[in-house]
Write a structure and sequence with these properties.
five-stranded parallel β-sheet; 253 residues; 2 domains; 42% helix; alpha/beta; four-stranded mixed β-sheet
């Protein structure tokens, strides 16, 4: 429930358009909706400005469907990450209007227009094509949260001229999300070129000594470039949410 829906409910009650019992029924759902296996945080849009995001892994397809139903019935847009194709097809068979983005493993159900952040641009940069699924998770998350988003893919340090050809785009961005596997050098390079907040995302893309993302994670944590912060391995969602909060704060100044 967002602030506008709450205002509408209270106005309707004041104007005798709904009775007290109907109002109380809606307000009971406000803190959370108890599904037995999950407590859906309906209050989150009032606290944070964004609805709860569903993490799809570890949930059965029936649990996922019930959570999506609960959130959509409250009038909120629905966003679910880490949803495999089998779960997505099950949900889509019950809710045909929901969209599935297979590269990013994301489900989106848009119940109302997404409120746009009017200033600032988040740019998503990937080092290689193999990093695109994580980059796309960041891209779709940032779009869902109302940002203007651009993307620049496959510009890793093995062909640094590809990045240098796009310096103008980097300079015009408010926040940069840099996604890289292998040795994870790209965020340091970008941090040495432009004075922008950089959120680095290590990916689990790489050969044996890469250790499933540990190598780029440590490289990024030890970056000599100022202004580089790091999220967890493959966490495109977390990077996009943090970038959104930065962009949001800059818009409120």
């Amino acid at each position: 429930m967002d602030i506008e829906k709450l205002k509408t409910l209270l106005k309707d009650y004041k104007n005798d358009l709904i009775d007290l019992e109907d109002l109380l029924t809606e307000l009971r759902k406000l803190p959370y909706d108890n599904l037995g296996f999950a407590l859906i945080d309906q209050h989150r849009p009032l606290r944070l400005g964004f609805p709860e995001i569903i993490y799809g892994e570890g949930k059965t397809q029936e649990q996922l469907l019930k959570i999506i139903h609960s959130m959509s019935e409250s009038g909120e847009n629905v966003f679910a990450t880490r949803v495999n194709r089998e779960k997505a097809e099950f949900v889509k068979s019950k809710i045909p209007e929901i969209e599935y983005f297979s590269d990013a493993r994301i489900l989106i159900l848009e119940k109302k227009p997404i409120e746009k952040i009017n200033r600032g641009t988040i740019t998503i940069i990937s080092a290689g094509t193999a990093d695109i699924p994580v980059a796309e998770e960041a891209y779709l998350t940032a779009k869902f949260l109302g940002n203007r988003v651009k993307k620049l893919y496959d510009v890793g340090v093995a062909g640094i001229h590809r990045l240098l050809d796009n310096l103008e785009l980097l300079e015009q961005s408010t926040v940069l999300i840099v996604v890289a596997g292998m040795e994870g050098a790209l965020p340091s390079v970008v941090g040495g070129l432009v004075g922008k907040p950089i959120i680095a995302v290590p990916t689990s893309v790489g050969y044996g000594a890469h250790f499933g993302g540990i190598a780029p994670l440590l490289s990024m944590l030890n970056s000599c470039a100022p202004g580089v912060t790091v999220v967890n391995i493959d966490n495109g969602f977390g990077a996009a949410f943090a970038a959104t909060l930065i962009n949001w704060q800059l818009n409120s100044l």
